[in-house]
Amino acid sequence: MELIAENMQVKDVMTRGVVTVPMESNAVEIAKAMADNSVSAIVAIEDNGETFGVISDVDILRKMKDKNWEIASVEDIMSDSVETINPSATVHDAAELMAAKKVHRLIVMSEETVGASYRPIGILSARDIIKQLFQK
C-alpha cells in the first residue's frame, strides 16, 4: 500500500512561511518569537536574508540547563547543520532525506530562478508528512 503519492511535491505539504529572527538574537528573544508564533522551530537569518541556522524548541530546552542560558546566542543554540530542500522535490524524497540525515524538519528554500532566490519559504516537518498520510 503506497501512502504518499510518488509525485506529491514538498510545496503541497509544507508549512508556508518561516518565522525568522536576526542571527544576533539571544535565547529569550528566540523563545519568545517561537511562543508568539506558536512554532516549534525558527530560522536565524543574516542581514542579507540568507539562512544562518535553525533553532528548535528542543535546542532551547537543552540550553536551559546552562547557567545564564538567557543570553546564549544563535550560534550557541542552533543545530549544527541546516538541511534544505527544493519545493518541487517529492515528499518521498524529503522523507528519505530526513531519515538519512536524522532530522525532523527541512527548510524549504525558494527556487533559484524565482524572485528573491534561495530564501526560506517554508518548513517541512515529519509531522507535516505524517498528517498528509491521513488526509482524505
TrEMBL record:
<dbReference type="GO" id="GO:0003938">
    <property type="term" value="F:IMP dehydrogenase activity"/>
</dbReference>
<keyword id="KW-0028">Amino-acid biosynthesis</keyword>
<keyword id="KW-0486">Methionine biosynthesis</keyword>
<feature type="domain" description="CBS">
    <location>
        <begin position="14"/>
        <end position="71"/>
    </location>
</feature>
<dbReference type="GO" id="GO:0009086">
    <property type="term" value="P:methionine biosynthetic process"/>
</dbReference>
<dbReference type="InterPro" id="IPR051257">
    <property type="entry name" value="Diverse_CBS-Domain"/>
</dbReference>
<dbReference type="InterPro" id="IPR046342">
    <property type="entry name" value="CBS_dom_sf"/>
</dbReference>
<dbReference type="InterPro" id="IPR000644">
    <property type="entry name" value="CBS_dom"/>
</dbReference>
<keyword id="KW-0560">Oxidoreductase</keyword>
<dbReference type="Pfam" id="PF00571">
    <property type="entry name" value="CBS"/>
</dbReference>
<feature type="domain" description="CBS">
    <location>
        <begin position="78"/>
        <end position="136"/>
    </location>
</feature>
<protein>
    <submittedName>
        <fullName>Inosine-5'-monophosphate dehydrogenase</fullName>
        <ecNumber>1.1.1.205</ecNumber>
    </submittedName>
</protein>
<keyword id="KW-0129">CBS domain</keyword>
